[in-house]
Amino acid sequence: xxxxxxxxxxxxxxxxxxxxxxxxFNAWYLTWFDEAMSGFLIHHGLDAEALDREGIDFQLVRxxxxxxxxxxxxxxxxxxxRPGRIGTTSFDIHFSVRRTGHETCAAKIVYVTVAxxxxxxxxxxxxxxxxxxxxxxxxxxxxxxGRADGPA
Length: 152
Fold this sequence. Notes:
- The protein is of the alpha+beta class.
- 24% of the residues lie in helices and 35% in strands.
- It has a 6-stranded mixed β-sheet with strand order 2-5-4-3-1-6.
- A hairpin with a 2-residue loop joins strand 4 and strand 5 (102-114).
């Protein structure tokens, strides 16, 4: 089920993502989440160039993934993105992979905001904080629910 507080990106499991067990190999889920995070940011006006202009970069420092069932080659899924906790220098993003409305996988990723030049942690910039707060607030916010196109 879709939630008005989520950004949702459709995805289709690709041949090269599938392992010998016939399901998407676990490492690919982090790639999917990275793509969905990029789509979420673009949807809210922060593409790669905007991030660079704002001096924003972030890196994954923790990931938790809970699998419930595998996704097979060619299956269409939706990857939902929902902001969580927002700290001084870090923030959480929750992801849910769904096939026909049923969750196949849930994840929480903690990102830390860093200087693009690698000089260390930085506070979450106001532009990013506003986007995360607005998206977490839901449909009454300026940004609310969104969709993006993924691979077909």
